[in-house]
């Protein structure tokens, strides 16, 4: 197995995940099979219980694993299906080691960080790197490993030691380290000292960067490059400038322009890897298709209002934003995303700034071509979400509600058209009379971690749903599969009333008791999904509900429906959301 380790210095959030994903894409264009592992040094076992406003999005895998958002980047760029084991955390490692110690696996030895914890990390990486991820059943040729955080963090030390040992054990031609650092510009001068110290730090821990990827706002001057190469003890060609780009999807092109592929070939001895002609052709086609999609500039702007409760941390909606971007690129539109706090849409008795926020938020909603309400937890801000769903429904503005957005739109519909003025969710008021949304009875109410309805689940389109735009977006399929993450569902006892009033549940689960998709007939596009279709959206293969929403907002939905989007890019990716 060949490994590419991506580490970071100076500051966190410098773009390691995008560079790791882009490197993986370049390897795929050579015809190689690529897998990815993300290491998160936090003690949490997984990302399931982390606050979105603090940590960002919790990405959900096909298996139901709740993992770091960077695994979403890997799947979007590389078209792979990863497992929860591809996300290694300190919590998982120590849990594994302690379980072994309790079973007596260490034969009475004193359990220590070195060698027991480090050996556990190495064994985990070696085992998981061999798991097939592209649907072919074949083992990957290269595994990208991203180490989260910043070199020097105390919680990263066991992982750095393990990776240093892995480099030694893998041997020459099987290991490459890309170190990502930030080069700030202060008073017009590009400062190299932070990167010098970052490289010095990683070298002191036993890892030797083969490439130094410098994140910066603008291209680096030649003297700056020469200085970095000199003091980081690398050749100038080993310093790659990763400047800000119009879109992150152009980063692979930037890395290719700076000759990263020849360095990958050399350092990983790729000339010794046997690549089938079919994979080689596939890689070439993938690269040409990628360039054709991500390079054009789109002049026509499309204003979309994203109404959520975590907008102070936009990473909380990362997959939603990416699905919107993929769809906008597909129909050749420039996405103008307006971030609106759902609380600002609720009437307020306060004056001054609160009133100004209220009027500003509603002005932005009124100018949007489409409105999306994504997922979330808790009561805060949901009244604003309901009000904006009412606005979209009554003013025939394209609307997409996802998970919580699906639920609040149904609640507002019940209030307005089913005579349930006090309709609500059990999540908001467990004692309410008209609970349109209820807790799923089979779930564990006491333990929160990993106890939701998670992962890939089937949705069955109903027999009388031939008119459905949502179904048409899936190519008229009878059964689809999308990923879920929720504890609450539409109350099965009230479905009849809702449907009689015009809220059609065109998609249900296998039992017919759990509602998955609703849609209005006499509306340009008013769709809600209990599932998170954004999790399966890919750059070359946009999510179906998101593509339909964006197309409807741009006024070209009928044109898109004629293109049979399920077949799009089928040669390059597993068809999104279709039953396998």
From TrEMBL:
Biological or metabolic pathway of the protein: Pyrimidine metabolism; CTP biosynthesis via de novo pathway; CTP from UDP: step 2/2
Origin superkingdom: Eukaryota
Native organism: Staphylotrichum longicolle
Signal peptide range: none
GO biological process, one term: 'de novo' CTP biosynthetic process
Family (UniProt): Belongs to the CTP synthase family.
Entries under Pfam families matching the protein: CTP_synth_N, GATase
Catalytic reaction annotation: UTP + L-glutamine + ATP + H2O = CTP + L-glutamate + ADP + phosphate + 2 H(+)
Entry keyword Amino-acid biosynthesis: no
EC number: 6.3.4.2
Domain Glutamine amidotransferase: 314-543
Protein name: CTP synthase
Alphabetic keyword roster: ATP-binding, Glutamine amidotransferase, Ligase, Nucleotide-binding, Pyrimidine biosynthesis
Claim: Ligase is one of the keywords in the record: yes
Positions of the CTP synthase N-terminal domain: 2-270
GO molecular function, one term: ATP binding
Purpose: Catalyzes the ATP-dependent amination of UTP to CTP with either L-glutamine or ammonia as the source of nitrogen.
């Amino acid at each position: 197995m060949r490994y590419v380790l991506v580490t970071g210095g100076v500051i966190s959030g410098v773009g390691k995940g995008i560079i790791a994903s882009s490197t993986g894409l370049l390897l795929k264009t050579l015809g190689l099979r690529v897998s990815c592992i993300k290491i998160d040094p936090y003690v949490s076992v997984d990302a399931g219980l982390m606050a979105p406003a603090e940590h960002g999005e919790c990405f959900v895998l096909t298996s139901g694993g709740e993992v770091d958002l960077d695994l979403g980047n890997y799947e979007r760029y590389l078209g792979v299906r990863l497992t929860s084991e591809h996300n290694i955390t300190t919590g998982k490692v120590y849990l594994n080691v302690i379980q072994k110690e309790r079973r007596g696996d260490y034969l009475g030895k004193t359990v220590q960080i070195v060698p027991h914890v480090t050996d556990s990390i190495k064994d985990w990486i070696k085992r998981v790197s061999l798991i097939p991820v592209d649907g072919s059943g074949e083992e990957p040729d290269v595994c990208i490993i991203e180490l989260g955080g910043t070199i020097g963090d105390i919680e990263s030390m066991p992982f750095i030691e393990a990776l240093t040992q892995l480099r030694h054990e893998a041997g020459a031609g099987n290991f490459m380290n890309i170190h990502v650092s930030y080069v700030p510009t202060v008073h017009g001068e590009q400062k190299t000292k932070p990167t010098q110290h970052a490289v010095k730090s990683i070298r002191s821990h036993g890892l030797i960067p083969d490439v130094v990827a410098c994140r910066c706002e603008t291209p680096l001057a030649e003297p700056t490059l020469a200085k970095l190469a000199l003091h980081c003890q690398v050749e100038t060609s080993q310093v790659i400038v990763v400047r800000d780009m119009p879109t992150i999807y152009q980063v692979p092109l930037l890395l290719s322009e700076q000759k990263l592929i020849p360095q990958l070939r050399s350092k990983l001895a790729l000339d010794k890897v046997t690549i089938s002609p079919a994979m080689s052709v596939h890689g070439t086609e993938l690269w040409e298709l990628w360039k054709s999609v991500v390079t054009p500039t789109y002049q026509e702007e499309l204003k979309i209002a994203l109404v959520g409760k975590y907008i102070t941390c936009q990473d909380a909606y990362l997959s939603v934003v990416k699905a919107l971007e993929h769809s906008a690129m597909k129909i050749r539109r420039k996405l103008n995303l307006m971030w609106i706090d759902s609380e600002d849409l609720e009437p307020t008795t306060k004056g001054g700034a609160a009133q100004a926020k209220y009027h500003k938020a509603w002005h932005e909603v009124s100018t949007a071509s489409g409105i999306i309400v994504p997922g979330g937890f808790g009561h805060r801000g949901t009244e604003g979400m309901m009000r904006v769903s009412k606005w979209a429904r009554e003013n025939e503005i394209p609307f997409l509600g996802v998970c919580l957005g699906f639920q609040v739109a149904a609640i507002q519909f019940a209030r307005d058209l089913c005579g349930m003025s006090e309709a609500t969710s059990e999540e908001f008021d467990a004692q309410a009379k008209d609970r349109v949304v209820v807790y799923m009875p089979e779930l564990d109410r006491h333990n929160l971690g990993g106890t939701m309805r998670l992962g890939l689940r089937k949705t069955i389109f109903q027999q009388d749903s031939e008119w459905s735009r949502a179904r048409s977006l899936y190519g008229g399929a009878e059964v689809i599969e999308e990923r879920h993450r929720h504890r609450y569902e539409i109350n099965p006892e009230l479905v009849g009333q809702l449907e009689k009033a015009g809220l059609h549940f065109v998609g249900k689960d296998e039992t017919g008791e759990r509602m998955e998709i609703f849609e209005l007939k006499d509306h340009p596009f008013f769709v809600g999904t209990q599932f998170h279709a954004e999790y399966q959206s890919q750059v070359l293969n946009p999510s179906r509900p998101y593509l339909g929403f964006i197309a409807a907002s741009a006024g070209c939905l009928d044109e898109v429906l004629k293109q049979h989007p399920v077949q799009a890019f089928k040669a390059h990716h597993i068809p999104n959301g279709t039953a396998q």
